[in-house]
Amino acid sequence: MQEAGRFSPAHKIERFMNKSRSLDLVYKFACFAFVGAALLLCAFSARPFRKVHHSPRGAATADIKVLGTSNLHSWSMEDKSVSCSARFIYAAGKKIPTSLSSFTFSFPVHGLTSGKSGMDSKAYNAMKAKDGGTIAFTATASTITPGTGDAFQVKSDGKLTIAGVTKPVVLVAACEVKPDGMVSCTGTDVLKMSDYQIKPPTYMLGALRTGNKLTIAFSMEVMK
Fold this sequence. Notes:
Elements: H1 2-5, H2 9-50, E1 59-70, E2 75-89, E3 99-108, H3 117-126, E4 134-146, E5 151-162, E6 165-177, E7 183-192, E8 202-203, E9 208-222
Antiparallel strand pairs: 1-2, 1-9, 2-3, 3-4, 4-5, 5-6, 6-7, 7-9, 8-9
């Protein structure tokens, strides 16, 4: 009787149910394992994608300051989001660029601010902002001098336009190649307002008089 009971309909149903439970457990375990593996792959693959730059080669953003003096105190105006283009040329396998094929920047005078509306208004009038005043620079020739490690110097001869007047200038920048491949550059240039037919603004009925000399300071990061 016991031997026959092993093959009874009830016994067969019980065996089928046990197998179904086992398959169900195996299926659930496989699903959890698959999800876990997917999450693990995402965790290790997410870091590199954060370093992918989508800006075009040679694109740059610059922070440009105009620094001046007066008979009472120094002053400054700044534009932190100037769009630039600086195209470096690299030899095969070299980290430091061998030359600079192009370098330009241009921004509206109204982009410069000092935080003092009265001063800004006077400066805009002096630089003929109402006539669509733009400050622009275009390099005509550039040379690169290697430095120590990842540092190098760029000397760019070019033309600077302010208040509709264009003059030749030489911009010298200290540059460095960063670990992510970006090139960081900083430099300054001293010029005179009178060279660009700008009359130094005065304030408070002439009590405050700005000096004729200006210092243009810039810092930028260029996409390799």
